[in-house]
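Fold Annotation — chain and its backbone
Encoding — discrete vocabulary of local shapes
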Amino acid sequence: MPASSLLSPSFLQKLERLSFVARRQFSGQLQGERRSPRKGASVEFADFREYTPGDDLRYVDWKAFGRLERLFLKLFVEEEDLSIHLLIDTSKSMDYGSPMTKAEYARRLAAALGFIGLTEYDRITVAAFSNELIANMAPLRGKSGIQPLFKYLENLPSGGGTDFAATLRRYAEQRRTPGIAIVLSDFYADGVAEGLKALAGRRFQVVLLHIVAPEEADPELMGDLRLVDSETGQTKEVTLSPYVLAQYKERFRAFCADLESLARRYGMDYARMTTAIPFEDVLFRYLRRGGLLR
């Protein structure tokens, strides 16, 4: 197993048992392990069609010709690679949480998902975004891409605000081969719906991995405080009482419910997790139960 500061070799061995599940067929670019909507020349028969001049005579069904005196071509399922797009929010709000920040959690989760895809010979692309697309990684395929993937994620920068609408729309427009687009973010931004709909509009299978810190979901603060917006630097003086905290928790639950409702409305998958949840539970329970992995 490759050495990495993100995931241990023993954990990587467990990941080799997993693979991605696509809810529909996608056309790939190279021969791989996935069924493609295109008809090719694999060992699995798909259909017949009438022969047209220029077709490969090796695939003519001569038995059918002997019975019907007409030429038919055998069609087979084409097996190609699946494109997995890992889109990681690296804005300043992700650099929060203890003992592990949301940014570190996202990098480790992306490393695990990328490793699963590369061992299955899927095509893995990683892009980081904040208020713009940054550090776009060239597509990787096969086990030789594992070390470059880990190195890329280990050196991923962070900072800035978040512009979901512009960055995800730009990414969707740049990609010629849609596939599974996995967005790892806390989704604290305007334009989330527009950005996600841009991916869905380009026929991506969109998966939202909503990462929050435990202290965001259930803060234990009290008294007079000065809150600082991590992305804009704006400050606000507040007095936190049990009543105010109860209001905050209700707003937070509503925010998560709205995001999940948005995903359901547009046929996207949604999973929320705190950074306190072990990676093994996320991958082997949450994402397996949700149908992304098997």
Notes: The chain has nine helices and eleven strands. The radius of gyration is 23 Å. Residues 36-80 form one domain. The CA atoms of residues 68 and 261 lie 56 Å apart.
